[in-house]
Amino acid sequence: MQITDIRETAIPLNSNLRNAVFDFSQMTTSIVAVITDVIRDGKPVVGYAFNSTGRYACGAQMRSRFIPRIIDADPDSLIDEARDNFNPEAILAAMMQGEKPGGHSDRSVGIGTIEVAVWDAIAKIEEKPAYQAIADRYNPGGAKPDMFVYVGGGWYAPGKGIPELLDEMRGYLDMGYTQLKMKVGGAPISEDIERLEAVLNLVGNDGWNLAVDANCGLTPDEARAYAGALAPYKLRWYEEPTDPLDYALMTELAETYEPPLATGENLFSQQDMRNLITFGGMRPNHDVLQIDPPQSYGVVAVARTIEMLHGTGWAVGSSVMPHGGNQMSLHIAAGLGMLLCESYPNTFGMFSGFADDAEIIDGYLKLDPDRPGIGFESQADLYEVMSELSSN
Amino acid sequence: MQITDIRETAIPLNSNLRNAVFDFSQMTTSIVAVITDVIRDGKPVVGYAFNSTGRYACGAQMRSRFIPRIIDADPDSLIDEARDNFNPEAILAAMMQGEKPGGHSDRSVGIGTIEVAVWDAIAKIEEKPAYQAIADRYNPGGAKPDMFVYVGGGWYAPGKGIPELLDEMRGYLDMGYTQLKMKVGGAPISEDIERLEAVLNLVGNDGWNLAVDANCGLTPDEARAYAGALAPYKLRWYEEPTDPLDYALMTELAETYEPPLATGENLFSQQDMRNLITFGGMRPNHDVLQIDPPQSYGVVAVARTIEMLHGTGWAVGSSVMPHGGNQMSLHIAAGLGMLLCESYPNTFGMFSGFADDAEIIDGYLKLDPDRPGIGFESQADLYEVMSELSSN
C-alpha cells in the first residue's frame, strides 16, 4: 500500500469580493490529488483537497519540499498497520523533515492541504465519510454529523449599498440558514452601523444570530471604537478586530467588550494558538477560536491543538470552529465535534459551499453517512477540475 | 528612474553541517538582482541580495506576487523625490498589496530579500556604503562601521569529536575573532558539557566570550536541564533553548537562568517581536534579541521594529543583533547601530563571511567607507553568481 503520486495545480479564485483589508481579485488556491495504489470500486483511491481561501497557492513549496519527502520515504513507514491504512501522523512527520522551528505559514498551508487530501484517501479506503474516519481516531465523544452552519457573508463589493446587502442576506435566510455574519471595517463606522442595523432588522437577533468580521482591518483605536459601538447589539461574535498577533489588544478588548470575540484563522500553529489563549485574554467557552485546518498543517495538527486545549478550560464543542466554508472544514468540524461550521454559498465560485444537493434546514446540515471521504465527488464543478488533475 | 527588472534564482547551500534540529543538506537559498535604469560608472545600477540561511528559496512567491507588484506599480510612486532615489518604504508597501494579516513567513523572506537588494541599489546610487544609506535614514546616532563580530560555529558534523571541534574553534581565534558560539542540544547533555568545557578551556571566559546555541532543538524539560547545567559557566548567551514561540517557557527560564538568554531569529515580524518582549520574560539590555533582516521583510521593517523597542527599555546598541553572518547583516547592523554581528566563516560556501579582504582585529571588523552598496562585489565567488543573474 503506497502513495504513488501527488499532483498539484494553482487555480485563480476569480472573485471580485472585498473585505476590510483587501480584494480577492488576484487570489489563487492550490488543489492537490494524492494518488494511491489501493483499489476501491475497481479504481485506485485518490484523495483530494484545496488550500481553503485567503492564502495564495503554494505549489512550489509542495513540489520542492513536501511531495518528494513523502514519495521518497519508505512506504512501509507511512502505514498504520493496525488499521491497514495510511498513517497521517507519519505522513505529517515525513513532510516536516528538514524544517526549522517557527515560521509556520511558509509551510503550514502546503503541508496541511496535502494532509487533508491524505484523509480523503484514508476515509475512502475505509469506505466511510471523512468525519467518521477522523472521529474514530481523535474524538472519543463521537462525530457530530448533524452540523450547525452559518454563512460568512455581508461582503463589500463595488456599487453595493444596503438594499443589495439585504438582498444578499435574505438569500441566505431563504436557503435555510439562521445565523449570518457580515463584514465590517471596510466603510466608515457610522456607515457600518447603518449596514448592521439594517441586517439586524432583517434577521432579528433574539438568538444572537448575527456576527461581524473586521478581518484584522482596524487600527487599535478603531478596534476599540467598534467594540464600543457594537457592544449594545449583542452580536454572536466580533471577529478579528485587529492584527491576529496583537494579543495585548485582544486582552484589552476582552476586558471591556462583554459579548463574544473570535479570532485565530490567521494563526497557523499550535504554538500560536497556545499563545492566543495564554496571552490574548480570550475567555474559555465564551469567545470563539477559529482554525483553518488545511492552512494549519491539517487534521492531525488540529486534533493535537484541541488536545492541548483540554485542561485549559476550553471545550471544542463550545469554543472551536473551522475557518473556511467547504467540504473539508465541514467534515473536520463534524469529526472533531466543533461548535459549528462556516459556509460561503456562491462566494468563491466552485470552491464555495458543500455538496450540490446539501440542504440546510433551520441552520443545520446533515452530512451523508454513505458518501466515502470528504465528498468532493458531490460538488460537480470542483470535482471536474480535481479529477482532471488525477487523470491520464 | 525606475526598476526595470527583478530576477531571482535558487541555489543549493551544499552544506553537510548539522545543528540540534536538522542538517542543511537539502537547504536552498534565493539570490535576487534588482535591475534599475540609473547609470553609475557607465552601467545600470543593480542591487543584489540573498535570503540568508535556514529558510528555503522562495522564488515562486517572488515571481507570482512580489516582483509583479513592483514592476506593475507606477514608477513615480516608488521614488523618494527629496533624495532623488528609490523609496524603500513605498517599495515595501507595494509588495504587501493583497496580503492578509498574520502568517508572516510565507512572504517575509521573499519580500525581505528583494527589499535588501533594493537597499544595495539605493546605496550604490548615492555612491556610499549601505550602512551609511541606512544610518542616514534611520539612525540619528550615526552608523557603527567599526563592528564587533563573533563566530557562530561549533557545529556538529559526522565523525566530529572534541579534537576536531577545538581545531574549528582555534581556527576562528587565529582569524582574529575573540567571541565564539557553539551548538548544543545535538548530543546528550553530558557530552555537550564536555564539548563546552573543552572550548572554554581553549578560549578562556574572562570576557564572557563564549555563547551556546540550541537552535530550538530542546524539549521544555531539556531546556530547563541545560539551563541548570549551563548557568555556572557564565556564558555570553544561551540561545534558542526551545520553540521560538514558547513565550511561557522563555519567561520561566528568564526567572531562573541568570546569565543572558537570546532568541528571535525564528520570528519574522514586528508583531512577533513585540509579543516576545511583552510575554516572553526577556530582560531589557541583558538578554539579546536576534532578527534576520532579509527574512523579516528587510531593512525598513527592522528599523520600525527598533523604533517599536524605544520606550520599552530596550536599546538597540546593547540588545539587538542580526541573525546571519553575511555582508547584508553586517551593513544593517552597522547602519542601525546594533550590539554586534554574527559571522560564519567558511560555513555556507560562497554565502559565508564578508569581503574577501576583510580583516578581523581583536574581534572587530572595519567596514570600508569607500565601497558603495552592500559590497557583494568584494566577495568574488558569490558575485560571480549574482552578476550572472543580472547579465543576459
- Total number of distinct structural domains of chain A: 2
In whole angstroms, the N-to-C terminal distance of chain A is 21 Å
Quaternary form: homodimer
- The amount of beta strand of chain A, in percent, is 15-25%
Number of helices in the DSSP assignment of chain A: 13
Q: Given this structure, which CATH class of the largest domain in chain A is correct?
A: Alpha Beta
Shape category of chain A: globular
The name of the CATH architecture of the largest domain in chain A is Alpha-Beta Barrel
* Poorly predicted regions of chain A: none
CATH topology of the largest domain in chain A: TIM Barrel
Specify which chain pair forms the largest interface. Answer: A-B, 46 and 46 residues
Number of strands of chain A: 15
